[in-house]
Amino acid sequence: MPRPETDIVATRIRIMDAAEHIIQEKGAISFTMTDLATAVGMSPSNLYRFFESKDALAEAMAGEWFAELEIIMDGLVSAEMPVEEKLYQFFAKRLMVKRARFEDDPGLFESYMELGDEHFEVIKGYVDLADHYMASILAEAMEKGYFKGLDLDTVVSLVNTMMQPFCNPKLMMQMMHLATDERLRIVISTILSGLQAHDEQVPVKPELHIAG
Amino acid sequence: MPRPETDIVATRIRIMDAAEHIIQEKGAISFTMTDLATAVGMSPSNLYRFFESKDALAEAMAGEWFAELEIIMDGLVSAEMPVEEKLYQFFAKRLMVKRARFEDDPGLFESYMELGDEHFEVIKGYVDLADHYMASILAEAMEKGYFKGLDLDTVVSLVNTMMQPFCNPKLMMQMMHLATDERLRIVISTILSGLQAHDEQVPVKPELHIAG
To answer: Which of A60, A109, A115, A144 could join A28 via S-S bond, C-beta 3.0 to 4.6 A?
Structure first.
């Protein structure tokens, strides 16, 4: 019976649109399923047939938020291109999507961040998935000789650390003007050429760097 | 007349302590000079003799917050040590101070961040001062041949970008467990060995990195 299934999907989308409108107006913290039922003209018990809790609604909204980013990540992992370019695009393409969303409606972007904070257990899965995709690109780079002396988990964690202004949406809100493509390219290249284990106490051998 | 001067300083300190107690209890956003006057048992007009506005109070509190960090930065800039170690300690020593403050009272730490957000024009001067100290260390590194092809302003800005989890106190609150000394040393060494201008489109020459 395809008809009812389609109706359910359409109604769920209509409810999510209404929820987005509410968080856009009021922020994500204070809205309740009762507010949402009123906004879509349903009884609360009817609303709960479509989303059994605010958690379930947040999960569906997070799914929409991450869907486009997942397609980008999934496409890149199997793409035929040099791993250096792949790592760059892994951040550049997602940065472009997030920047467009932010510029389109900074207030709504912030409300989505609040919604994510409120339902972090939901977001955690998507963050782990992004780490998983990134790990497979970084593993490819390690096969080519990058990141000598470091294990993959350490590399994933250090790359995440240095890439925060290009991938942490909350930090991006504060620093969006700094997250340019040109700067991203330099940071990726810094990580690729500089990130490796060092035995000595002084970080690097200065004599390698004397100009001329 | 040293006596009255000393009394004024002592009273200002007592008022700042009371203000800290208030933001610790209620957060920084909502408290007023009237609340503060009540807390120290003064009339509002008497309080205004010591701090002419909430801005002036925030400025004095920011001064206390940054005083220890300024001593560290000032001492390091003129210290006799290899510039690589100097750059590492520039972040490591301040990280240690901020981590200790955070662990001592995470709620108060967060309230200070709120106070800073509310009075950003006050904080901005201290942020610029830290950039100024960092620039003089990075200029010293450039004299030794680091960061080829980049100008000092670009280097300052890129180093700030990659160091966010070790120097942005708001981000540190979320990622304190990641900001270890060992990771800091690797990130500094990555920046020193990897950060430079690149002409080619592909970030680095992979053949330089093939192991063996």
So the answer is: A115
Give the domain extent around A21.
Answer: 1-52
The CATH number that applies at residue A181 is 1.10.357.10
One domain, residues A34 and A75: no
Q: What angle do CA A16, A170, B164 make, to 5 degrees?
A: 160
Tell whether A79 is covered by a domain. yes
Label residue B199 by pLDDT band (50, 70, 90).
low
Among A27-36, A125-134, B191-200, top mean pLDDT goes to: A125-134
Report pLDDT digits (tens) over B111-127. Answer: 999 999 888 888 899 99
Tell whether the torsion through CA atoms of A128, A129, A132 and A138 is positive or negative.
negative
| DSSP H stretches of helix in chain B | 2-26, 33-40, 44-50, 54-77, 83-104, 106-118, 120-143, 152-162, 164-167, 169-175, 181-194
First to last CA, chain B: 75
Structure confidence by residue, pLDDT tens digits, B63-78: 999 999 999 999 999 9
Q: Supply the ipTM of this predicted assembly.
A: 0.84
Q: Is B113 on the interface with A (CB under 8 A)?
A: no
A131 and A37 together in one domain: no
Judgement on whether residues A128 and A25 belong to the same structural domain of the protein? no
| A178: chain B residues, CB-CB within 8 Å | 157, 161
CB contact under 8 Å between A194 and B198, yes or no, is no
Whether A98 and A180 map to the same domain: the answer is yes
Which of B187, B204, B208 lies at the smallest CB-CB distance from A158?
A: B187
Residues B48 and B79 in one domain: no
Which of A145, A165, A203 faces B209 most closely, judged by CB atoms? A145
Residue bearing the bigger pLDDT, A11 or A5: A11
Q: Give me the mean pLDDT over the A69-75 stretch.
A: 96
Q: How many domains does chain B have?
A: 2
Say which of A85, A146, A194 has its CB closest to residue B195: A194
Chain B, nearest residue to A210 by Cα: B145
Same domain, B95 and B171: yes
Tell me if B196 sits within 8 A of B204, measured CB to CB: no
CA of B182 to nearest chain A CA: how many angstroms apart?
11
Entry pTM: 0.86
CB contact under 8 A, B203 and A197: no
Q: Contact A194/B189, CB-based, under 8 Å? A: yes
